[in-house]
């Protein structure tokens, strides 16, 4: 069962898609998942689910819910392709690493692309050779081999003089990096109905060393990513972590395991706009993202994009939301005003996705302050994410009127 919805849409218990129903069990599984993860991906209603600005895929047992962005009227297959391109441009996933002919861009393509990307990285690691490390093992042996652990010897072998509790170094594949990847490999066949991916995952799991599971925290995982010895593991580890941390097995019924791979459209839109601007190769234009200034105590403020030219400075703040009346909220205006002041920018620009009915608003001055100073200007830009049902890759030039 596959459902395609758009962000902020509501689905309710009893709604049908192609003769299949969103049931109370699906609703309960998603409610349990939210209680465990405490996320903002969707809101639980008494009789349904309201999605937010996160897009991607949720899988609840045999039910796949695809959540797509939408600011302009276009079919799901258009937004599906555009979203994949935006993620690729943002560096989240590499399209060229996948196998479109065998996977296709179908409603649950997100999982297929991510899983295939992960399996490719695991295959590369196996071909280049997995890392082995020394680890200490404690054994109660009949022969003294290694270093005697006196405390354990007294504790366990006081009446067994023929035994020795020894500590030995063992050189093998059992370490957290391999264990995380192996656990993700073992989970993956349960999460896809694509026979190509199932066979590929099972084949890699068969040749991967059989390792015990490892209970890890996010801090431990970050330390592992920063370990230079596992630099070539990084991509595989990040994808494995995504699978493991966002998977919740349903131990009650065994029928409604939940997995989520979702992305904040606010962040994705910001990164996409920055990447489009960064493509502009002009030595007189300096473009930076997420630079900060001290604001209050240990708090800092970070505009999305800061542009500096020889004669001026410009602040850009991206907002992934639809302005039906073409008027920004007072909160958005206050935010860009503060950015103007702290970054000494002559003009601030609020960037929203176009809905087809919105009109650009040229830079307008703020009203003069009591001392008579004019604190700069604010401009509204409504950018067309889609043009002719394709991702608009000229947004950078359109924003700067080049």
What does this structure look like?
This protein is of the alpha+beta class and 402 residues long. The protein folds into 3 domains: 2-129 and 176-265, no CATH class; 133-172, no CATH class; 279-399, 3-Layer(aba) Sandwich (Trna Endonuclease, Chain: A, domain 1). The protein has 12 helices and 23 strands. A hairpin with a 2-residue loop joins strand 7 (54-60) and strand 8. Helix 4 crosses helix 9. It is globular.
Distinctive features:
alpha+beta, single chain, 3 domains, 23 strands, Trna Endonuclease, Chain: A, domain 1, globular, 402 residues, 12 helices
Write the layout of secondary structure elements.
Layout lengths: L1 E5 L3 E3 L3 E2 L2 E2 L2 H14 L4 E4 L2 E4 L2 E7 L2 E6 L7 H14 L10 H4 L5 H20 L4 E9 L5 E2 L1 H8 L6 E9 L3 H12 L7 H13 L10 H8 L8 H12 L1 E2 L9 E7 H14 L7 E4 L3 E4 L2 E3 L3 E4 L4 E6 L11 H13 L4 E7 L7 E5 L11 E7 L2 E2 L2 E2 L3 H5 L3
Parallel strand pairs: 1-8, 18-19, 19-21
Antiparallel strand pairs: 2-6, 3-4, 5-6, 7-8, 7-13, 9-11, 10-11, 12-13, 14-17, 15-16, 17-18, 20-21, 22-23
Helix pairs in contact: 4-7, 4-9, 6-9
Question: What's this entry about, in short?
Answer:
By secondary structure, this protein is of the alpha+beta class. The chain has helices at residues 24-37, 76-89, 100-103, 109-128, 150-157, 176-187, 195-207, 218-225, 234-245, 265-278, 330-342, 395-399, and strands at 2-6, 10-12, 16-17, 20-21, 42-45, 48-51, 54-60, 63-68, 133-141, 147-148, 164-172, 247-248, 258-264, 286-289, 293-296, 299-301, 305-308, 313-318, 347-353, 361-365, 377-383, 386-387, 390-391.
């Amino acid at each position: 069962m596959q459902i395609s919805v758009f962000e902020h849409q509501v689905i309710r218990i009893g709604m049908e898609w192609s003769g299949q129903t969103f049931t109370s069990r699906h609703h309960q599984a998603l409610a349990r998942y939210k209680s465990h993860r405490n996320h903002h991906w969707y809101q639980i209603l008494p009789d349904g689910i309201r999605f937010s600005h996160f897009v991607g895929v949720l899988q609840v047992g045999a039910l796949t819910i695809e959540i797509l962005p939408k600011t302009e009227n276009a079919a799901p297959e258009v937004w599906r392709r555009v979203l994949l391109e935006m993620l690729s441009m943002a560096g989240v996933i590499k399209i060229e690493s996948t196998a479109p002919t065998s996977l296709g861009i179908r409603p649950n393509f997100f999982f297929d692309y991510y899983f295939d990307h992960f399996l490719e990285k695991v295959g590369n690691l196996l071909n280049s050779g997995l890392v082995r490390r020394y680890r200490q093992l404690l054994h109660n042996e009949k022969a003294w081999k290694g270093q005697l652990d006196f405390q354990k010897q007294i504790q366990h072998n006081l009446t067994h003089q023929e035994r020795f509790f020894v500590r030995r170094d063992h050189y093998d594949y059992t370490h957290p990096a391999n264990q995380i990847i192996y656990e993700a490999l073992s989970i993956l066949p349960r999460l896809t109905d694509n026979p190509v991916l199932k066979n590929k995952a099972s084949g890699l799991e068969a040749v991967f060393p059989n390792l015990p599971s490892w209970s890890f925290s996010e801090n431990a995982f970050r330390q592992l990513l920063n370990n230079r010895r596992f630099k070539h593991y990084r991509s595989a580890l990040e994808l494995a972590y995504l699978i493991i941390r966002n998977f919740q097995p349903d131990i009650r019924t065994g029928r409604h395991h939940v997995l989520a791979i979702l992305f904040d459209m606010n962040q994705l839109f910001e990164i996409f706009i920055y990447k489009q601007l960064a493509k502009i190769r002009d030595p007189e234009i300096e473009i930076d993202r997420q630079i900060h200034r001290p604001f209050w105590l240990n708090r800092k403020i970070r505009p999305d994009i800061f542009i500096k030219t020889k004669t001026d400075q410009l602040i850009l703040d991206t907002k992934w939301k639809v302005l039906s009346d073409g008027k920004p909220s007072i909160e958005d205006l206050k935010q860009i005003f503060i950015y103007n002041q702290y970054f000494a920018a002559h003009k601030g620009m609020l960037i929203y996705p176009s809905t087809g009915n919105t009109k650009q608003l040229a830079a307008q001055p703020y009203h003069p302050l009591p001392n008579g100073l004019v604190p700069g200007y604010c401009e509204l830009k409504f950018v067309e994410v889609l043009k002719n049902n394709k991702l608009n890759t000229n947004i950078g030039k359109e924003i700067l009127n080049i």
